[in-house]
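Blackboard transcription, Thursday session:
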Amino acid sequence: MPNRVTIDTERTIAPIDRNLFGGFAEHLGRCIYGGIFEPGSPLADERGLRTDVLAALQRLRMPVMRYPGGNFVSGYRWRDGVGPLEERPTRMELAWHDLEPNSFGTNEFVDFCRALGSAPYLAVNAGDGDMREARDWLEYCNGSKDTAFVKLRKQHGYEAPHGVKYWGIGNEVDGPWQIGFKTAEEYARAYAEYAKVMKWTDPSVMLLASAVSLWQPSWVERVQLLMEHAASQIDYMAIHWYVGNDAKRGYRDDDFASYMAISEKMEDMLSATEGIIRAMSSALKLEHDIPIAVDEWNVWYRVHNEGKLEEVYNLEDALVVAMHFNAFIRHAHSVKMANIAQIVNVIAPILTRSDGMVLQTIFHPFEIYSRTCGDTALDVHWSGDTFSTPEFDALRVLDVSATLDTKARKIAVYLVNRSESASSETTIELGNARFAGPVTSHVVNGPGVKASNTFETPGSVGVREHSLAATGRSLTLMLEPHSVTALVCDIA
Ligand code: AHR
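(Written on the board underneath:)
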Protein backbone atom coordinates (compact mmCIF):
# COMPACT_ATOMS: atom_id res chain seq x y z
CA MET A 1 0.00 0.00 0.00
CA PRO A 2 1.46 3.44 -0.83
CA ASN A 3 2.13 5.62 2.16
CA ARG A 4 0.73 9.11 2.25
CA VAL A 5 1.84 11.99 4.48
CA THR A 6 -0.35 15.09 4.43
CA ILE A 7 0.97 18.40 5.70
CA ASP A 8 -0.90 21.63 6.16
CA THR A 9 1.34 24.42 7.44
CA GLU A 10 -1.61 26.05 9.15
CA ARG A 11 -2.38 22.92 11.16
CA THR A 12 0.22 23.48 13.86
CA ILE A 13 0.73 21.81 17.24
CA ALA A 14 2.86 24.35 19.13
CA PRO A 15 6.14 26.24 19.05
CA ILE A 16 9.12 23.91 19.42
CA ASP A 17 11.43 24.54 22.34
CA ARG A 18 15.05 24.09 21.22
CA ASN A 19 15.73 22.58 24.64
CA LEU A 20 14.38 19.31 23.17
CA PHE A 21 17.95 18.84 21.97
CA GLY A 22 19.53 18.98 25.42
CA GLY A 23 22.30 16.80 26.81
CA PHE A 24 23.31 15.34 30.13
CA ALA A 25 26.79 14.78 31.61
CA GLU A 26 27.26 12.80 34.80
CA HIS A 27 30.23 11.88 36.93
CA LEU A 28 29.88 8.27 35.87
CA GLY A 29 32.38 5.99 34.16
CA ARG A 30 34.27 7.85 31.43
CA CYS A 31 31.73 10.56 30.72
CA ILE A 32 33.63 13.36 32.47
CA TYR A 33 37.10 11.92 33.07
CA GLY A 34 38.45 10.56 29.79
CA GLY A 35 35.37 11.83 27.93
CA ILE A 36 35.00 15.58 28.00
CA PHE A 37 37.90 16.23 30.39
CA GLU A 38 41.36 14.77 30.00
CA PRO A 39 44.08 17.16 31.18
CA GLY A 40 47.47 16.26 29.77
CA SER A 41 46.03 14.59 26.68
CA PRO A 42 47.46 15.86 23.38
CA LEU A 43 43.81 16.22 22.34
CA ALA A 44 42.92 18.51 25.25
CA ASP A 45 43.08 22.30 25.41
CA GLU A 46 44.68 24.30 28.23
CA ARG A 47 41.56 23.78 30.37
CA GLY A 48 41.75 20.02 29.93
CA LEU A 49 38.70 19.87 27.65
CA ARG A 50 38.97 17.33 24.82
CA THR A 51 38.84 19.45 21.68
CA ASP A 52 37.81 16.56 19.40
CA VAL A 53 34.86 15.80 21.69
CA LEU A 54 33.93 19.48 21.90
CA ALA A 55 33.93 19.78 18.11
CA ALA A 56 31.70 16.71 17.75
CA LEU A 57 29.32 17.93 20.47
CA GLN A 58 29.11 21.35 18.83
CA ARG A 59 27.65 19.60 15.78
CA LEU A 60 24.75 18.43 17.99
CA ARG A 61 23.87 22.02 18.95
CA MET A 62 22.72 21.18 22.45
CA PRO A 63 21.11 24.30 23.95
CA VAL A 64 21.07 22.98 27.51
CA MET A 65 23.29 20.59 29.48
CA ARG A 66 22.29 18.81 32.70
CA TYR A 67 24.97 18.03 35.32
CA PRO A 68 26.41 16.53 37.61
CA GLY A 69 23.97 13.58 37.84
CA GLY A 70 22.06 11.38 37.72
CA ASN A 71 22.39 9.07 40.67
CA PHE A 72 25.77 10.67 41.37
CA VAL A 73 24.22 13.93 42.53
CA SER A 74 22.42 12.27 45.43
CA GLY A 75 25.76 11.88 47.24
CA TYR A 76 27.54 14.94 45.84
CA ARG A 77 28.99 17.87 47.80
CA TRP A 78 29.37 20.75 45.38
CA ARG A 79 31.99 22.44 47.55
CA ASP A 80 34.34 19.49 46.96
CA GLY A 81 34.49 20.50 43.29
CA VAL A 82 35.42 24.18 43.53
CA GLY A 83 38.62 26.02 44.49
CA PRO A 84 42.30 25.16 44.13
CA LEU A 85 42.78 21.70 42.65
CA GLU A 86 45.28 20.58 45.26
CA GLU A 87 42.71 21.22 48.00
CA ARG A 88 39.91 19.23 46.41
CA PRO A 89 39.19 15.98 48.23
CA THR A 90 38.89 12.55 46.68
CA ARG A 91 35.69 10.91 47.93
CA MET A 92 34.11 7.49 47.87
CA GLU A 93 31.33 7.69 45.35
CA LEU A 94 28.48 5.44 46.41
CA ALA A 95 26.04 5.74 43.51
CA TRP A 96 28.40 4.02 41.07
CA HIS A 97 30.95 2.66 43.56
CA ASP A 98 33.90 4.60 42.29
CA LEU A 99 36.34 7.20 43.57
CA GLU A 100 35.58 10.85 42.77
CA PRO A 101 38.68 13.06 42.51
CA ASN A 102 36.64 16.27 42.12
CA SER A 103 39.11 17.76 39.64
CA PHE A 104 36.13 18.67 37.47
CA GLY A 105 33.41 20.65 39.22
CA THR A 106 31.01 23.56 38.85
CA ASN A 107 33.36 26.10 37.26
CA GLU A 108 34.92 23.61 34.85
CA PHE A 109 31.40 22.56 33.87
CA VAL A 110 30.31 26.13 33.25
CA ASP A 111 33.44 26.70 31.11
CA PHE A 112 32.58 23.55 29.17
CA CYS A 113 29.01 24.78 28.62
CA ARG A 114 30.27 28.17 27.41
CA ALA A 115 32.62 26.43 24.97
CA LEU A 116 29.68 24.41 23.68
CA GLY A 117 27.12 27.22 23.61
CA SER A 118 24.86 25.32 26.04
CA ALA A 119 23.00 26.72 29.04
CA PRO A 120 24.09 24.92 32.21
CA TYR A 121 21.38 23.02 34.09
CA LEU A 122 22.42 21.92 37.59
CA ALA A 123 20.71 19.25 39.66
CA VAL A 124 21.00 19.67 43.43
CA ASN A 125 21.49 16.93 45.98
CA ALA A 126 18.11 15.97 47.44
CA GLY A 127 19.47 12.56 48.47
CA ASP A 128 21.93 12.92 51.34
CA GLY A 129 22.15 16.68 50.85
CA ASP A 130 19.93 19.43 52.20
CA MET A 131 18.29 22.63 51.13
CA ARG A 132 20.93 24.79 52.76
CA GLU A 133 23.57 23.24 50.54
CA ALA A 134 21.35 23.70 47.49
CA ARG A 135 20.68 27.33 48.22
CA ASP A 136 24.39 28.00 48.91
CA TRP A 137 25.32 26.47 45.56
CA LEU A 138 22.78 28.68 43.81
CA GLU A 139 24.15 31.74 45.61
CA TYR A 140 27.73 30.77 44.68
CA CYS A 141 26.72 30.43 41.01
CA ASN A 142 24.27 33.27 40.50
CA GLY A 143 24.80 35.74 43.34
CA SER A 144 25.89 39.31 42.69
CA LYS A 145 25.68 40.82 46.20
CA ASP A 146 28.69 41.06 48.45
CA THR A 147 28.22 37.73 50.24
CA ALA A 148 30.72 35.13 51.37
CA PHE A 149 29.73 32.73 48.58
CA VAL A 150 29.97 35.39 45.92
CA LYS A 151 33.42 36.37 47.25
CA LEU A 152 34.40 32.73 47.14
CA ARG A 153 33.37 32.43 43.48
CA LYS A 154 35.36 35.56 42.68
CA GLN A 155 38.37 34.17 44.56
CA HIS A 156 38.05 31.11 42.35
CA GLY A 157 38.46 33.33 39.31
CA TYR A 158 34.84 33.92 38.29
CA GLU A 159 34.00 37.58 38.75
CA ALA A 160 30.71 37.52 36.87
CA PRO A 161 27.79 35.37 38.03
CA HIS A 162 27.30 32.16 36.06
CA GLY A 163 23.60 32.90 35.62
CA VAL A 164 22.51 29.26 35.83
CA LYS A 165 18.84 29.32 34.93
CA TYR A 166 17.77 25.68 35.26
CA TRP A 167 17.94 23.85 38.60
CA GLY A 168 16.66 20.34 39.22
CA ILE A 169 15.68 19.38 42.75
CA GLY A 170 17.02 15.86 43.19
CA ASN A 171 17.32 12.96 40.80
CA GLU A 172 15.12 9.86 40.49
CA VAL A 173 14.04 10.20 44.09
CA ASP A 174 11.32 7.63 43.31
CA GLY A 175 13.87 4.82 42.88
CA PRO A 176 14.99 2.59 45.75
CA TRP A 177 18.45 2.60 44.09
CA GLN A 178 18.80 6.29 44.87
CA ILE A 179 20.87 7.56 47.80
CA GLY A 180 18.14 9.14 49.93
CA PHE A 181 15.17 7.55 48.10
CA LYS A 182 11.96 9.33 49.08
CA THR A 183 8.34 8.34 49.29
CA ALA A 184 5.91 10.41 47.25
CA GLU A 185 4.89 12.39 50.31
CA GLU A 186 8.47 12.93 51.51
CA TYR A 187 9.60 14.26 48.14
CA ALA A 188 6.58 16.47 47.63
CA ARG A 189 7.24 18.14 51.00
CA ALA A 190 10.99 18.37 50.43
CA TYR A 191 10.48 19.82 46.95
CA ALA A 192 8.26 22.60 48.29
CA GLU A 193 10.87 23.60 50.90
CA TYR A 194 13.87 23.43 48.56
CA ALA A 195 11.93 25.40 45.96
CA LYS A 196 10.97 28.07 48.48
CA VAL A 197 14.53 28.88 49.55
CA MET A 198 15.93 28.54 46.05
CA LYS A 199 13.40 30.99 44.60
CA TRP A 200 14.09 33.35 47.51
CA THR A 201 17.81 33.14 46.70
CA ASP A 202 17.26 33.82 43.00
CA PRO A 203 13.68 34.37 41.81
CA SER A 204 14.73 34.11 38.18
CA VAL A 205 15.59 30.39 38.27
CA MET A 206 13.46 27.70 36.66
CA LEU A 207 12.98 24.66 38.86
CA LEU A 208 12.50 21.06 37.75
CA ALA A 209 10.73 18.52 39.94
CA SER A 210 12.06 14.97 39.77
CA ALA A 211 8.73 13.25 39.19
CA VAL A 212 8.95 9.84 37.55
CA SER A 213 11.60 7.33 36.57
CA LEU A 214 10.02 4.14 37.92
CA TRP A 215 6.95 3.59 35.75
CA GLN A 216 5.01 1.58 38.27
CA PRO A 217 1.41 2.37 39.25
CA SER A 218 2.51 4.61 42.11
CA TRP A 219 3.90 7.16 39.62
CA VAL A 220 0.45 8.67 39.27
CA GLU A 221 0.26 9.36 42.99
CA ARG A 222 3.76 10.89 42.89
CA VAL A 223 2.79 13.47 40.30
CA GLN A 224 -0.50 14.13 42.05
CA LEU A 225 1.13 14.73 45.44
CA LEU A 226 3.82 16.92 43.94
CA MET A 227 1.13 19.03 42.34
CA GLU A 228 -0.89 19.19 45.56
CA HIS A 229 2.11 20.30 47.64
CA ALA A 230 4.06 22.45 45.24
CA ALA A 231 2.35 23.08 41.88
CA SER A 232 2.91 26.82 42.05
CA GLN A 233 6.68 26.25 42.54
CA ILE A 234 7.17 23.77 39.70
CA ASP A 235 8.46 25.09 36.39
CA TYR A 236 8.97 21.67 34.76
CA MET A 237 7.80 18.16 35.61
CA ALA A 238 10.82 15.95 34.94
CA ILE A 239 10.45 12.35 33.83
CA HIS A 240 13.02 9.75 32.75
CA TRP A 241 12.98 6.63 30.65
CA TYR A 242 15.36 4.23 29.00
CA VAL A 243 14.38 1.72 26.34
CA GLY A 244 16.00 -1.15 24.47
CA ASN A 245 15.43 -4.16 22.26
CA ASP A 246 15.02 -6.29 25.33
CA ALA A 247 12.13 -7.84 27.14
CA LYS A 248 14.33 -8.01 30.20
CA ARG A 249 16.98 -5.42 30.89
CA GLY A 250 20.56 -6.19 30.01
CA TYR A 251 20.57 -8.15 26.76
CA ARG A 252 19.31 -7.72 23.25
CA ASP A 253 16.26 -9.75 22.27
CA ASP A 254 16.42 -9.38 18.51
CA ASP A 255 12.70 -8.71 18.36
CA PHE A 256 12.99 -5.89 15.86
CA ALA A 257 9.24 -5.34 15.39
CA SER A 258 8.53 -5.08 19.11
CA TYR A 259 11.47 -2.73 19.46
CA MET A 260 10.09 -0.51 16.72
CA ALA A 261 6.72 -0.48 18.51
CA ILE A 262 8.37 1.31 21.44
CA SER A 263 6.89 4.48 19.94
CA GLU A 264 3.56 3.44 21.50
CA LYS A 265 5.10 3.29 24.98
CA MET A 266 6.61 6.74 24.52
CA GLU A 267 3.25 8.10 23.37
CA ASP A 268 1.64 6.49 26.36
CA MET A 269 4.09 7.90 28.92
CA LEU A 270 3.88 11.39 27.44
CA SER A 271 0.09 11.44 27.06
CA ALA A 272 -0.47 10.04 30.54
CA THR A 273 1.89 12.58 32.11
CA GLU A 274 0.23 15.40 30.17
CA GLY A 275 -3.15 14.11 31.36
CA ILE A 276 -2.36 14.04 35.04
CA ILE A 277 -0.67 17.45 34.98
CA ARG A 278 -3.69 18.84 33.19
CA ALA A 279 -6.19 17.23 35.54
CA MET A 280 -4.38 18.52 38.61
CA SER A 281 -3.83 21.98 37.08
CA SER A 282 -7.51 22.24 36.43
CA ALA A 283 -8.45 20.99 39.91
CA LEU A 284 -6.01 23.44 41.52
CA LYS A 285 -6.95 26.30 39.15
CA LEU A 286 -3.25 26.69 38.46
CA GLU A 287 -2.32 29.86 36.67
CA HIS A 288 0.78 28.67 34.86
CA ASP A 289 1.48 25.72 32.56
CA ILE A 290 3.77 22.98 33.78
CA PRO A 291 5.64 21.56 30.81
CA ILE A 292 7.36 18.19 30.76
CA ALA A 293 11.14 17.79 30.75
CA VAL A 294 12.28 14.31 29.71
CA ASP A 295 15.61 15.09 31.28
CA GLU A 296 17.04 11.60 30.86
CA TRP A 297 16.17 9.41 27.89
CA ASN A 298 18.00 7.00 25.63
CA VAL A 299 18.53 3.39 24.63
CA TRP A 300 20.35 1.55 27.41
CA TYR A 301 21.36 -2.11 27.80
CA ARG A 302 23.57 -1.63 30.88
CA VAL A 303 26.56 -3.12 29.10
CA HIS A 304 29.82 -2.90 31.02
CA ASN A 305 33.08 -2.30 29.21
CA GLU A 306 35.96 -2.97 31.58
CA GLY A 307 33.75 -2.01 34.52
CA LYS A 308 32.43 1.15 32.83
CA LEU A 309 28.87 1.49 31.57
CA GLU A 310 29.38 1.88 27.83
CA GLU A 311 27.14 0.91 24.93
CA VAL A 312 27.95 0.24 21.31
CA TYR A 313 24.82 1.30 19.46
CA ASN A 314 23.55 -0.11 16.21
CA LEU A 315 21.26 1.10 13.46
CA GLU A 316 18.03 -0.04 15.11
CA ASP A 317 18.98 2.07 18.14
CA ALA A 318 19.45 5.06 15.83
CA LEU A 319 15.91 4.53 14.49
CA VAL A 320 14.63 4.53 18.06
CA VAL A 321 16.48 7.77 18.83
CA ALA A 322 14.83 9.33 15.76
CA MET A 323 11.44 8.07 16.99
CA HIS A 324 12.07 9.86 20.27
CA PHE A 325 12.46 13.15 18.43
CA ASN A 326 9.30 12.44 16.43
CA ALA A 327 7.43 11.88 19.69
CA PHE A 328 8.86 15.05 21.27
CA ILE A 329 7.88 17.07 18.19
CA ARG A 330 4.36 15.58 18.17
CA HIS A 331 4.10 16.54 21.86
CA ALA A 332 5.67 19.96 21.39
CA HIS A 333 2.73 21.51 23.25
CA SER A 334 3.86 19.84 26.48
CA VAL A 335 7.47 18.66 26.11
CA LYS A 336 9.70 21.69 26.49
CA MET A 337 12.99 20.05 27.39
CA ALA A 338 14.63 16.69 26.74
CA ASN A 339 18.17 15.62 27.61
CA ILE A 340 19.75 12.63 25.97
CA ALA A 341 21.56 10.58 28.59
CA GLN A 342 24.40 10.96 28.20
CA ILE A 343 26.83 12.77 25.93
CA VAL A 344 30.15 10.90 25.89
CA ASN A 345 31.14 7.25 26.51
CA VAL A 346 28.37 6.47 29.01
CA ILE A 347 25.16 5.65 27.07
CA ALA A 348 26.33 8.17 24.52
CA PRO A 349 26.55 9.24 20.87
CA ILE A 350 30.35 9.57 21.13
CA LEU A 351 32.93 7.00 22.25
CA THR A 352 36.48 8.08 23.01
CA ARG A 353 39.89 6.48 23.28
CA SER A 354 43.01 8.32 24.37
CA ASP A 355 43.92 8.76 20.70
CA GLY A 356 40.57 9.63 19.14
CA MET A 357 36.84 9.09 19.07
CA VAL A 358 34.08 7.50 17.07
CA LEU A 359 30.60 8.81 16.27
CA GLN A 360 28.06 6.19 17.21
CA THR A 361 24.98 5.42 15.08
CA ILE A 362 22.73 7.50 17.33
CA PHE A 363 24.86 10.59 16.74
CA HIS A 364 23.51 10.91 13.20
CA PRO A 365 19.76 11.27 13.78
CA PHE A 366 20.47 13.61 16.69
CA GLU A 367 22.59 15.87 14.51
CA ILE A 368 20.09 15.95 11.65
CA TYR A 369 17.06 16.71 13.79
CA SER A 370 18.89 19.33 15.81
CA ARG A 371 20.24 21.01 12.68
CA THR A 372 17.08 21.00 10.58
CA CYS A 373 14.21 21.29 13.07
CA GLY A 374 11.97 24.33 12.56
CA ASP A 375 10.39 26.51 15.24
CA THR A 376 6.85 25.12 14.99
CA ALA A 377 5.57 21.55 15.19
CA LEU A 378 3.09 20.56 12.49
CA ASP A 379 0.15 18.25 13.00
CA VAL A 380 0.89 15.69 10.29
CA HIS A 381 -1.57 13.11 9.10
CA TRP A 382 -0.19 9.90 7.65
CA SER A 383 -1.45 6.49 6.56
CA GLY A 384 -0.11 3.43 4.77
CA ASP A 385 1.50 0.07 5.45
CA THR A 386 1.16 -1.45 8.90
CA PHE A 387 2.89 -4.07 11.06
CA SER A 388 1.86 -5.97 14.17
CA THR A 389 3.63 -7.32 17.23
CA PRO A 390 2.45 -9.60 20.04
CA GLU A 391 1.46 -6.43 21.89
CA PHE A 392 0.17 -4.12 19.15
CA ASP A 393 -1.96 -4.48 16.07
CA ALA A 394 -1.70 -2.55 12.84
CA LEU A 395 0.90 0.06 13.70
CA ARG A 396 1.92 2.28 10.82
CA VAL A 397 5.28 1.25 9.37
CA LEU A 398 6.29 4.86 9.10
CA ASP A 399 6.83 6.98 12.18
CA VAL A 400 6.52 10.63 11.20
CA SER A 401 6.77 14.21 12.42
CA ALA A 402 7.20 17.57 10.70
CA THR A 403 8.18 21.11 11.56
CA LEU A 404 7.94 24.53 10.00
CA ASP A 405 10.57 27.24 10.04
CA THR A 406 8.14 30.15 10.05
CA LYS A 407 10.65 32.85 9.04
CA ALA A 408 12.52 30.95 6.37
CA ARG A 409 9.31 29.24 5.09
CA LYS A 410 10.95 25.83 5.19
CA ILE A 411 9.47 22.56 6.26
CA ALA A 412 11.30 19.54 7.61
CA VAL A 413 9.58 16.15 7.40
CA TYR A 414 11.03 13.30 9.44
CA LEU A 415 10.22 9.74 8.40
CA VAL A 416 11.42 6.56 10.07
CA ASN A 417 10.85 3.50 7.91
CA ARG A 418 10.41 0.72 10.46
CA SER A 419 10.41 -2.09 7.92
CA GLU A 420 13.48 -4.29 8.24
CA SER A 421 13.33 -5.39 4.62
CA ALA A 422 10.98 -3.30 2.47
CA SER A 423 11.33 0.10 0.87
CA SER A 424 8.25 2.25 1.38
CA GLU A 425 6.88 4.22 -1.51
CA THR A 426 5.68 7.43 0.10
CA THR A 427 3.92 10.53 -1.16
CA ILE A 428 4.25 13.81 0.68
CA GLU A 429 1.30 16.08 0.00
CA LEU A 430 1.23 19.74 0.91
CA GLY A 431 -2.31 20.86 1.62
CA ASN A 432 -1.92 24.62 1.49
CA ALA A 433 1.51 25.21 -0.03
CA ARG A 434 3.77 24.02 -2.81
CA PHE A 435 7.40 23.03 -3.10
CA ALA A 436 9.56 26.00 -3.98
CA GLY A 437 12.73 24.33 -5.17
CA PRO A 438 14.56 21.05 -4.71
CA VAL A 439 14.13 19.00 -1.55
CA THR A 440 17.24 18.05 0.42
CA SER A 441 17.01 14.52 1.68
CA HIS A 442 19.23 13.37 4.57
CA VAL A 443 19.17 9.60 4.99
CA VAL A 444 20.61 7.71 7.96
CA ASN A 445 21.15 4.08 7.07
CA GLY A 446 23.63 1.21 7.07
CA PRO A 447 24.02 -2.35 5.81
CA GLY A 448 21.54 -3.82 8.32
CA VAL A 449 19.77 -3.09 11.59
CA LYS A 450 22.63 -4.57 13.62
CA ALA A 451 25.31 -2.44 11.93
CA SER A 452 27.43 -0.45 14.40
CA ASN A 453 30.10 2.20 14.19
CA THR A 454 33.25 1.14 15.98
CA PHE A 455 36.88 2.27 15.88
CA GLU A 456 37.40 -0.46 13.28
CA THR A 457 34.28 0.39 11.21
CA PRO A 458 33.58 4.07 11.98
CA GLY A 459 31.47 4.74 8.89
CA SER A 460 29.25 1.68 8.83
CA VAL A 461 26.15 3.75 9.64
CA GLY A 462 26.23 7.26 8.28
CA VAL A 463 24.27 9.97 6.51
CA ARG A 464 23.80 10.44 2.78
CA GLU A 465 22.40 13.61 1.33
CA HIS A 466 20.74 14.08 -2.02
CA SER A 467 18.66 16.61 -3.77
CA LEU A 468 15.21 15.66 -5.10
CA ALA A 469 13.42 17.68 -7.72
CA ALA A 470 9.97 18.75 -6.53
CA THR A 471 7.31 20.98 -7.98
CA GLY A 472 3.67 21.55 -7.17
CA ARG A 473 2.08 20.06 -4.09
CA SER A 474 3.23 16.49 -4.05
CA LEU A 475 6.45 14.51 -3.99
CA THR A 476 6.74 10.72 -4.22
CA LEU A 477 9.88 8.97 -3.08
CA MET A 478 11.11 5.57 -1.93
CA LEU A 479 12.14 5.34 1.71
CA GLU A 480 14.87 2.77 2.21
CA PRO A 481 14.25 -0.10 4.64
CA HIS A 482 15.41 0.53 8.24
CA SER A 483 16.20 4.19 7.62
CA VAL A 484 15.60 7.68 8.94
CA THR A 485 14.90 10.27 6.25
CA ALA A 486 14.71 14.01 6.86
CA LEU A 487 13.31 16.01 3.96
CA VAL A 488 14.02 19.70 4.12
CA CYS A 489 12.51 22.10 1.61
CA ASP A 490 11.45 25.64 0.89
CA ILE A 491 7.75 26.12 0.41
CA ALA A 492 5.67 28.82 -1.15
O1 AHR B 1 22.14 7.98 33.10
C1 AHR B 1 22.50 6.93 33.94
C2 AHR B 1 21.65 6.84 35.18
O2 AHR B 1 20.34 6.50 34.82
C3 AHR B 1 21.47 8.10 35.96
O3 AHR B 1 22.50 8.32 36.85
C4 AHR B 1 20.20 7.87 36.69
O4 AHR B 1 19.50 9.07 36.95
C5 AHR B 1 19.43 6.93 35.80
O5 AHR B 1 18.93 5.83 36.47
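Lecturer's comment: The longest strand covers residues 236-243.
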